[in-house]
Structures are given as C-alpha cells and as structure tokens.
C-alpha cells in the first residue's frame, strides 16, 4: 500500500483549488441562504447613520475598560503559559496534544463552561481568552524557535540546561518576532473580549448588543468607532515601558463578580458530576447494563445533534472559505502599490484594517438582525473578515514582487504577472485560515444558525452540561481533523514553509512561484 501510494501524483495548485471550490458548490445545494426580513436595507441605513453620527457621550466607559482589561490579562496569561509550553513543544507529544485540544475550543465555548464554575466573573473572561491562546502561542512560539539560527546554541558549553540554553541562546534570536506576534495576538484578544459581551460579560459587546436591540444606533456606532481606535492605536499604548502599568491597571480594573460562587465546591461538582455522562454518575462501571444505558444516552446525541451539527458546520465553513478566496483575490489590489496607486493604497489598507478588525461574531450578529436567521449572514461575516486579512497580506506580498521594466499594466498585470506568482502564498494563507473559519462557524450556532454551537447552547441552557461537554469535544475533534487535512495539503503542495502568521516580516521567496 505504501509503495503504491508513493507513485500517486501530488495534487497541484489547480486541483486543490478545484476541490475546495467543488466542496463549496456542493454546500450551496443544501445551505439555507434565505433573506427573511422585510426591510433589510432600511435597517442597514439606520446602522450606517449611527456610524456617521456616533453618540460618544452615551458610551459607558467601563465597558471599554473591561474590554481592554480582559484582553490584556487573558493574552498576557496565555502568552506567558505558551512561552513555557513552547520549550518542550517539539519534543513532547503530550504537550502538543494538550495545546491542540485547548486551542481547538473557541473562547465562547470556554466561557460558557467556565461560567458554570466561576459565574459571570472576571475569572471567566480572563481564562476564556487565556486557555485557547496558550495553545496557540505555544505552537507559534515553538515554530519561531525552530526557525531561529542555531549558531549560538552550538557554542554553548557541554551540560548547559534546556532552560539556560533557551534563555541565553535562542530567546534573543526570536524575541523581536515573538513580540510582534504577541502584539497581534492582543488585537485578537480585544476582539475575543468584545465578543464575550454577547454572552453576558460586561465588555463592549454587551453594550453593543443592548444598544442595537433597542435601536440606539448612534451609541452602537460610537462603540464600533472606539473599538477601531483601540485596535488602530495599540502600538502606541502597548510598549515595553507601559506593560507593567497595563497589567497592574487591568488587574485593578476588573469588574466585580455577579452573584456569589463558592469556587471550590462548584469546581468539584462540575468535574465530578456535571460533565460526567448521566448514565455513569454513581453507576457500577463493571456491569454491562451501565454501558448499555450509556449507549442509549449517546446514540440520539450522535445521530440527532453531532452528525447534523457537524455537517452544517462543514457546509458553512466550506462556503465561507470559497467566498474568502474570491473576496481576497478581488480585494488585494486595493492595497498594492502597482494597482491602487499612491492615493488609493492608503485608503484600501484602511478599509481592510477596519474589516479585519471587526469580529466575525459581531458581523454575523448584525447580519442576522438585518437579513434574518439563515447561513447567509454567517457566510458574509466570515468571508468579509477573513478576506480582509488575506487581501491585506497579499497586498504586502504584491508590493515586494520585483516586476520587469516592461511588465504589463491593469488586468494583464493582475492575471499574468501578479496572481500566478502569489498563488502559492495565497493557498498557504487560505488553508491556514480554514481551521479558524471552522472554529468560528461552530460558534455561530449560539446566534441561531444550526451548527454545532446551536446544540451546545441548547444543552447549556437546559443545564445538560454532560451533553454540552460532549458536543464541544466533538467540535474540537472536527477542528483538529480539518487542521490536519490543511497541514497535509500544505505539505503536499510544498507550501508548508511559507509564512502564514499575520505579524512579522514576510518576505517573498522563490517557493511562492507555482
């Protein structure tokens, strides 16, 4: 079998692109894309009016402070833990599996689970961000360490410990790139912190949802503009000399816990009872009847929730992935010097920064209010956000291409000179975003789209935490499987070494040519 497999042709750029597009077209046949609201354009015009006439005085400043505090502490804790895990990451399979498990679960799902132990508290918000970010940062930091120059390591004296070798030989080589990535991760943390408001934590998302539901569009617009200002100015207020002040200030500014919770007993009940499958609670594990009851409990969850929820999640993710690809190919010339020119390029970049800075969950929430409950708002939200990210990065790569003096212009330059030379990098970005799109697709169920998150939200609202935990585990397994397929495709296409991180220098290399 292996010998025969060695002679199978490797998939090329064209074949992988066709497979992804065919999967999206197949998904369109079963996707619910209806618009059910009567006047979507009038609602959209009122929202845009709020953006053009924002009521800044109506914004509760505490929601802004809490958003920043959750992000700073969550990212700080996640990045610090990730740095510790990055050292044994390459050598320990257990560490890699643990990191894959925690990062495969979305921050909203972590928050829904943590709320059962810590309530609507700062601990819930901070840990919901820190847990998946620890897994993400461990993986990225480990990759940065592996990519670093080993010259300093080779001259260390014999017997140097692992920690000492890392601190004195490897860390100085990668500190700058780690700093850049962590700064980008803080941008993601601000988006995550905002989204946590949609499930009750007192961040800007909570204030935005309240304002939007009550028709206070000027206040909603002001919240959005303030959030964009936070994202756009983060390099000004996050510096080495302000880091300690930010961490201490964030810890002091955390909101009080809503209600009282005895954490010890709550945690013991959560781990020892709530998330244990109901047929196994206090049952004798050695008796066959116990496992028969477990299968009777598990079978309807598998057939009526996990399988249909997974199918809907994959359909949504595949359509959004194809829409992201098309959007990125259309949008990246807006940020490229050769296409947009010296005047259009800054405007194009500003537009894409705004699009990429808006959380997909918020875009989907607004879309559902404007268009009604279907997959269409979720697809548009995912496509806009991710196309903005990929197009922004592709524009940077396009500016680094050494064009010939006699290169064509306009559409010929785009179709025959630029896209073919960037297509490998384009696929690398797209396949990397695949896993992230799937994670977001799952949580849109909380908004009413029938993905896996829909069943998770229903189970938690009914206090069936054992079912919710099983569904979240299924979501994580699907995410890990898609990530594995994505990595296998990148290796097969020989684009696995191309840069996919949003921050840091990303030069054009010869490997990007098809």
TrEMBL record:
Domain of life assignment: Bacteria
Gene3D superfamilies: MetI-like (1.10.3720.10)
Compartment(s) where it occurs, according to its Swiss-Prot or TrEMBL record: Cell membrane
Keywords (A to Z) from UniProt: Cell membrane, Membrane, Transmembrane, Transmembrane helix, Transport
Record field: transmembrane: 64-87, 108-131, 151-169, 190-208, 214-231, 243-263, 315-335, 374-394, 436-455, 467-485
InterPro entries: MetI-like_sf (IPR035906)
This protein's name: ABC transporter permease
């Amino acid at each position: 079998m292996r010998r025969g497999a060695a002679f199978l042709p490797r998939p090329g750029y064209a074949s992988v692109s066709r497979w992804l597009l065919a999967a999206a077209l197949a998904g369109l046949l079963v996707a619910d894309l209806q618009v059910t609201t009567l006047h979507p354009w009038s609602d959209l015009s009122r929202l845009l009016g709020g953006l053009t006439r924002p009521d800044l005085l109506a914004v509760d400043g505490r929601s802004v402070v809490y958003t920043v505090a959750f992000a700073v502490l969550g990212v700080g804790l996640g990045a610090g833990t990730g740095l510790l895990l990055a050292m044994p990451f390459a050598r320990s399979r257990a560490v890699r599996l643990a990191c894959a498990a925690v990062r495969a679960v979305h921050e909203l799902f972590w928050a829904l689970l943590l709320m059962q132990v810590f309530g609507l508290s700062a601990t819930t918000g901070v840990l919901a961000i820190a847990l998946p970010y620890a897994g993400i940062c461990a993986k990225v930091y480990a990759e940065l360490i592996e990519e670093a120059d080993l010259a300093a390591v080779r001259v260390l004296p014999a017997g140097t410990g692992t920690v000492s070798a890392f601190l004195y030989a490897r860390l100085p080589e990668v500190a700058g790139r780690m700093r850049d990535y962590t700064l980008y991760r803080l941008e993601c943390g601000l988006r995550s912190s905002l989204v946590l408001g949609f499930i009750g934590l007192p961040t800007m998302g909570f204030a935005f949802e309240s304002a939007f539901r009550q028709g206070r569009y000027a206040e909603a617009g002001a919240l959005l503009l303030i959030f964009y200002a936070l994202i756009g100015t983060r390099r000004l207020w996050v510096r080495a000399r302000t880091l300690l002040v930010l961490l201490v200030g964030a810890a002091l500014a955390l909101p009080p816990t809503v209600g009282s919770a005895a954490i010890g007993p709550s945690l013991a009940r959560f781990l020892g009872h709530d998330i244990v499958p109901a047929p196994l609670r206090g049952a004798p594990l050695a008796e066959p009847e116990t496992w028969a009851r477990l299968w009777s409990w598990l079978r309807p969850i598998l057939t009526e929730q996990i399988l249909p929820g997974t199918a809907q999640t994959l359909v949504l993710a595949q359509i959004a992935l194809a829409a992201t690809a098309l959007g990125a190919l259309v949008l990246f010339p807006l940020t490229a010097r050769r296409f947009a020119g010296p005047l259009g390029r800054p405007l194009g970049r500003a537009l894409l920064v705004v699009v990429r800075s808006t959380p997909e969950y918020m875009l989907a929430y607004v879309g559902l209010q404007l268009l009604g409950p279907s997959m269409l708002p979720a697809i548009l939200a995912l496509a806009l956000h991710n196309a903005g990210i990929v197009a922004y990065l592709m524009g940077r790569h396009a500016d680094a291409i050494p064009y010939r003096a006699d290169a064509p212009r306009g559409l010929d330059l785009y179709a025959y000179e630029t896209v073919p030379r960037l297509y490998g990098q384009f696929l690398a970005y797209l396949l990397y975003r695949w896993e992230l799109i799937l994670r977001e697709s799952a949580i849109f169920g909380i908004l009413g789209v029938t993905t896996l998150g829909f069943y998770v939200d229903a189970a938690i609202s009914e206090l069936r935490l054992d079912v919710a935990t099983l569904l979240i585990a299924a979501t994580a397994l699907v995410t890990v499987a898609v990530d594995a397929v994505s990595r296998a495709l990148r290796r097969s296409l020989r684009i696995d070494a191309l840069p996919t991180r949003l921050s840091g220098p990303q030069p054009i290399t010869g490997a990007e040519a098809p």
